[in-house]
Queue: 2 jobs
Job 1
Amino acid sequence: MPNSTTYSVIACLAVLGVSAPAHAGSEHGHNPANTISTEHDHADSFRHFAPELPAMRARAAQINTDFGLHVSEIEPGLFFVTDLIYQSAFLVTDEGVVVFDAPPSFGDRLRAAIEMSAPGVPITHFVLSHKHADHNGGGYTFADVEGLKVIGAQAFADSLARNPLRGVLTPTETFEDALSFSVGGVPIELQTANFHANDVDVIIHLPEHQFLMAIDTITPGEAPFMNFGGTADLEGYMASFEMFLSYDFEHFLSGHVSVLGNRQDVETARDYAHDVRDTVYQMWPGFLDRFMGNMELTEFQHGNLAYRITMEQVRDECAAQIIDRWEDTLSVVDLWADSHCETVVMHAIMH
Ligand SMILES: [Zn+2]
């Protein structure tokens, strides 16, 4: 018979819109928790998830070109580009155009956007934020630009030499920790950090444009993507927000969704991520007691099963709290909170 702990797990799972083990187990003989049903009247139906918040939808960029991109000049000479899923930017100066990332989903159209916004101005620089093809696999569309300076961190270049990625340009100029340069008199500052990729991330700062770019970090108006954007470095991720906030900026380009972020979005993302971390760590002293309780539940016959039950209990209680506290502030919290809690649970176990 379920005890009170099991009931609370079932309650949490109900909040998350996923099936409780007891219910699912009777049908399938295993535990498919975390599975969302595409059926309308299923207990785990997708229809149980909250709609996106109106405040976030109101900020969404709109397609404003006939080639299917949103292109807007956010500061003099600085253009923000999005296909509403990925984001990129370019800077037009008297000397040439500087491109910041080229996602494969719109690499060719990015070039069209540059030609439309700066007809006749040569493309001279291409700056790479990190070595993930989904943000730079469109670089090949700039491969024929004569004399193009492709700028990337040394660790990026090393990693690319070991594992070439389709469409990603090889840096022609590299730097170790930081690089400051200017194009047409506009200063550009690059700084390496570790918050997402497993080799290196680069923070791109244009101080005169109040512009900061750090890819795969926040999703303005929304809870972070699954597992905190799949970060390879959770501690670096948690610490990154203060690092970003130490810069002078108003615009924050984070690479995803159609909304261009700002300072407030970075503060909100920090508070959310830290709340998830603190919520799990507050429960952590009771982890072993819970585990022993679940060992008893499984009649001391199945340590792995007891461990998984314990991890799910902590994850699901954390997620229920997080959803309760954040669902009116950020969109899709109910969709991803359990993955965020699970990421912290895994980190707490392994560190
Ligand atoms: Zn990435």
Note: The chain has twelve helices and 13 strands.
Job 2
Amino acid sequence: MKALVTGGAGFVGGTVVHALLDAGHAVVVVDNLSSGTADQVPEGATFVELSVGNAPAITEVLRATSFDVCFHFAGLIAAGASMVEPETFFANNVGETLSLLQCLVAAGVDRFVFSSSAAVYGEPLYTPIDESHRTETVSPYGESKLLVEHSLAWLARLGRIRYAALRYFNAAGAVHGRPELHVPETHLIPLALEVAAGDRTSLDLYGDDYPTPDGTCIRDYIHVADLATAHIAAAQILDDEPAFVCNLGTGTGSSNAEVVEAVRKVTGRDVAVRVGPRRPGDSSTLVAANDRARAVLRWEPVRSSLEAIVSDAWAARVEAGEPT
Ligand SMILES: NC(=O)c1ccc[n+]([C@@H]2O[C@H](COP(=O)([O-])OP(=O)(O)OC[C@H]3O[C@@H](n4cnc5c(N)ncnc54)[C@H](O)[C@@H]3O)[C@@H](O)[C@H]2O)c1
């Protein structure tokens, strides 16, 4: 297939581009490099530096190639930052996405795979969280994902587009020497690896008095390689499932303390930890029910053990020449 990949200079998008190229698909990446870097666009993909909200330029890209599908990863991702600059998040994640959708519909590109997030659920009422859990967001970031999902549902209902909204839990791990490097980094595993590498003096853990076995928060880490196979499967089922929403997670959680221990074990280095008070907005436990993804996508995570995730993330840092 011919795929337009937005945000393909970023962590998850770039990994999916690799997987698409490996499977023999043609890929054009559109990214404005607001957080990604051009050297992270995999070789073999055509790269166009562009914001997805630039309608005339996107229309040109769509004129040049007859795409079968658009994978939409482009977006601002830090929920904390969205509490400080909500207007920027809504403009980028919602406004620019709706503009992109308008261009796609006009060009007749009617398959759309969207990077949604577990953040659409807000504070969980129960766990594992399934897709019928109520959506009551607690940040502009989560709301930006939900607003796009709602728009997609209407476009699908009115026959404009087929879509899959994939609600990732915590993307982690690495492939092809592409370490997870967000700026600023807010994700636990890369932060812990930075401490192990000596780039950072200590790791802040927010709260050790949660109602979990070791008192630290529990999250569901999904390897980017497993996310990539799920995306390709999602693009391929859209003929049968024209409006598809599903979680992408493992169904198992790891506590912050377990992550730190895995980083110590894999790297053979110490990871100094500073335990502080709980952070507002952090849920105790976020774990996905992934039965729908398994059944409909015929997908299962095969690389998402905590040890494999941390080992691959560390190996990618080493391969990329990051300080270790
Ligand atoms: N990483 C996670 O754990 C996680 C979890 C849930 C959902 N997601 C979603 O997955 C997607 C990818 O996440 P990631 O971790 O790879 O983030 P990332 O920051 O590494 O990649 C996002 C990419 O989008 C680009 N971008 C942002 N706004 C753009 C715009 N308007 N036009 C063109 N390019 C733009 C950035 O330059 C960057 O390369 C995001 O939409 C994010 O919200 C990520």
Note: The pocket of nicotinamide-adenine-dinucleotide is lined by residues 6-7, 9-13, 31-36, 51-53, 73-77, 92, 96, 115, 117, 168, 170-171, 182 (CB under 6 Å).
